[in-house]
Amino acid sequence: MLTQTAVHSEVSRRPTLMPRRGPGSTPEATSSLSPIEHAMHLMGATMSYPRNSEIFGEDEAADYIYRVVTGTVRTYKILSDGRRQIGGFYLPGDIFGLECADEHSLSAEAITDARVLVVKKSALTTLAGHDAAVAQHLFALTGRELRRVQDRILLLIKSAQERVASFLLEMAERSPSGNAIELPMSRQDIADYLGLTIETVSRTLTSLESCAAIEVPTSRRIVLRNRSALNRLHG
Amino acid sequence: MLTQTAVHSEVSRRPTLMPRRGPGSTPEATSSLSPIEHAMHLMGATMSYPRNSEIFGEDEAADYIYRVVTGTVRTYKILSDGRRQIGGFYLPGDIFGLECADEHSLSAEAITDARVLVVKKSALTTLAGHDAAVAQHLFALTGRELRRVQDRILLLIKSAQERVASFLLEMAERSPSGNAIELPMSRQDIADYLGLTIETVSRTLTSLESCAAIEVPTSRRIVLRNRSALNRLHG
DNA sequence: CGATGCGTTGATAACTTTCAAATTTAGTGG
DNA sequence: CCACTAAATTTGAAAGTTATCAACGCATCG
Question: Looking at residue B23, what is its pLDDT?
Fold first, then answer.
């Protein structure tokens, strides 16, 4: 089964620490944010990471929670046999780094150049200890992440077609763009996310295309043509 | 792939509500428990569920968190095509019901006759809002569950042998009994947990037995004979 | 004792991976 | 801007793994 993703021994230029922003100067309106996101904006710092650079490693202390501002992030784990499993893809607005109490069980990398809001976990839990609304929201947030991961489990017991169809629907759901998806990640990323090989992912996409369920104008761009067919597949 | 677990349309006798216990009358020493477990003992009620009865349904309000006192519990989800995916097995001391914010995404059933401590989620989050230690613990608890689920994902991308070996090691880890495991669940439960068929689970067990890695005196009893071989498999 | 549920075993089919090669795309330097 | 090289993606054929279908054994329970 060796997928053997060439381990990214790439540029690991140091991320740039951006000046801490005060309230009111955020690029997004903080008023529409949840208490936690609001707090993250107040207490956090924005960091910039170039494409393929590491945001945190599997063994690091995991004191931080992250919120994607721009770009795309992947979390992943390298298994003992060299395979790589991707834990998730995170798009702007998504929060990652929740998955562990003490240490990260995953590493995180920027798939594209990315800006990420970073805040100390302890700052959030302290806040939660003073404000039940924050506590409840923090709890709900991890609960949602938990459910997201459980949905992945449902994905992994399905066939290759179902997995790919579900992945496309999920990405379409999360992208604003309607039926056209601009994939920030490579086929290898998708394969390692779905537990398949790149060949199977590629073949499945072509088969979906020949079913007229999708269109693949370029490898990174996919248009959903027949959602009901995809929905039927993804069960 | 239709595993078609005969849906448990069994006895669904009403669970028995046990009298609420006051502090100090618990069967376990509460002193060694975490703040949350302590709170659960103070605020919760113990319920009894007969074998194969439902503890909560997928659609129910999910206002509660549960802690197994005796017996074994499974959480599961029935997919649209009839397949069943088991979310997890919970042994005495384990906490379940964390997985969702608003509604359960899973159902829960007692595998054996079980007693379960039940406490309102809102009571815990309220408590967390007053006590940072509780907030932090609650956060850590869901983080741990999150990691458990992520480990399941790593399991599901592996081969049948690896999955079964990992399952056995996990169960041995969680049972007090050392190398001998008394399985409370059926082959179908194991299959639906590992994303395999009962035939494959059965075949894999026999193959592991013929490798002298395990011994299967009775179908519900498994003895680990060669842990390093199992560890090698589970990667 | 026959019915029933659970687990095992066997043969075959379906699906996915593996290995290899062709093709396309992207990046670089002239 | 074009040519060239490296990387990513697609495609093909063969091998390996798991599911499916079917039958059998074994225990439990009326």
Answer: 41
